[in-house]
Amino acid sequence: MNALIVFALSYAAMAAVSLSMERHQQQVAGRPFAGMALRLGGWVLLAVSLAPAIAAWGTSVGILAWLGFLTFAALATGLQMTYAPRPVRWTAPTVALLGAMAWMLA
Fold it and tell me: Residue 27: CB partners within 8 Å, gap ≥ 6?
C-alpha cells in the first residue's frame, strides 16, 4: 500500500512539473497557460511524496525507494505525454487525490 501511495504522489508531481512546460501545455490543452503554479505545486508534491516513503521504510531505504519511484513515475508520465497527452488533465489530479486519501487512511 505504501508503494502505491509514493508512486501516486510521485506521478502527480511529475505530471505537474511536465505540464509547467509550454510544449506540454500545448499538447494537453491546446494553448499555453500559467505554468509557474504547476511548477511550484509539482516540486511541493515531490517533497510531500518523500514523507510516506520515509515513514514506511526509514530514512536510508525510504530515500532510495523514493528515488526509484520517481524514476518509474517519470517514465509513466513521459510515456503518457508521448502517446496520450490529453487524459493527463484528469489522471494526474485523480491519482494525486487517491494517493493523498490512501496516505491519510493508512
Answer: 81, 85, 86
Cell of 11: 506521478
Please, how many CA atoms are within 13 Å of residue 62, restricted to the half-sphere of its CB?
16
Predicted TM-score (pTM) of this structure: 0.91
**Which residue intervals of 1-106 are DSSP H helices?**
2-19, 22-29, 36-57, 59-83, 88-105
Q: Where are the domains of the chain?
A: 2-105
Q: What does pLDDT average to in each consecutive run of 10 residues of the chain (106 residues)? A: 92 92 85 82 93 95 96 95 90 91 88
Give burial (CB, 10 Å; 0-12/13-18/19+) of 4.
middle
